Amino acid sequence: MSLEQAKKIAAFKAVDEYVRNDTVVGVGSGSTVVYAVQRLAERVKAEGLRLVCIPTSFQARQLIIDAGLVLGDLEQNPRIDCAIDGADEVDADMVLIKGGGGCLLQEKIVASCAAQLIVIADYTKDSKRLGEQYKKGIPVEVVPMAYVPIRDRIAAKYGGKLQLRMAVAKAGPVVTDNGNFILDWHFPDTIVNGWDEINRDIMMIPGVVETGLFVKMATKAYFGLADGSVIERSA
Ligand SMILES: O=C[C@H](O)[C@H](O)[C@H](O)COP(=O)(O)O
């Protein structure tokens, strides 16, 4: 089974188990969420479900609109029943790295408004510790004018290297949906836990907007496996 199939079975299972009539759904970002939106649209059509979908990015908004789903926002729906989102890595304690695709701030806001954050992923995201499989570091979204002092402070305190994420089809850095830059922190592999404190500490640096560390947020994770099965992990 391909990686895409593994993403799809995880996404379908999450939607089937968590979404029912009148659910307000947070729609995450990334390549796995595409399958979740596909399944939401299929079920709306087949079962006549009434759903409201709250996007976590420009991409998610487009997915919702293109699928003909009802688009909502936090002004009208400050309480979300479940947010369904991908992850770059999930550790044994259900700490997540997110933001590999540049979306983390709105994802964390939406997840914080949700009764449940459900992670959907393929088996390459399932790790004992962060950095075991995902090698692109922990994204930190920062106000552009502050990227150098923030970079230097995190490196001085915790070690490792922080790289300004550069755009591919544009000269210069990636600019997030919120107009910010992203520093990817390639943290030293001596850091294996204590992410809650590290996250809080980094968040206190002026100019840090959000980190891609999601600690104590995910309630359940579905991992699609190569053999066609899906395993679940709960917080
Ligand atoms: O910035 C992107 C988001 O945090 C994604 O949810 C995360 O990168 C996982 O994306 P994918 O499902 O494409 O692996």
Automatic annotation (TrEMBL):
<comment type="similarity">
    <text>Belongs to the ribose 5-phosphate isomerase family.</text>
</comment>
<dbReference type="GO" id="GO:0005737">
    <property type="term" value="C:cytoplasm"/>
</dbReference>
<dbReference type="Pfam" id="PF06026">
    <property type="entry name" value="Rib_5-P_isom_A"/>
</dbReference>
<dbReference type="InterPro" id="IPR037171">
    <property type="entry name" value="NagB/RpiA_transferase-like"/>
</dbReference>
<dbReference type="InterPro" id="IPR020672">
    <property type="entry name" value="Ribose5P_isomerase_typA_subgr"/>
</dbReference>
<dbReference type="InterPro" id="IPR004788">
    <property type="entry name" value="Ribose5P_isomerase_type_A"/>
</dbReference>
<dbReference type="GO" id="GO:0009052">
    <property type="term" value="P:pentose-phosphate shunt, non-oxidative branch"/>
</dbReference>
<protein>
    <recommendedName>
        <fullName>ribose-5-phosphate isomerase</fullName>
        <ecNumber>5.3.1.6</ecNumber>
    </recommendedName>
</protein>
<dbReference type="GO" id="GO:0006014">
    <property type="term" value="P:D-ribose metabolic process"/>
</dbReference>
<keyword id="KW-0413">Isomerase</keyword>
<dbReference type="GO" id="GO:0004751">
    <property type="term" value="F:ribose-5-phosphate isomerase activity"/>
</dbReference>
<comment type="pathway">
    <text>Carbohydrate degradation; pentose phosphate pathway; D-ribose 5-phosphate from D-ribulose 5-phosphate (non-oxidative stage): step 1/1.</text>
</comment>
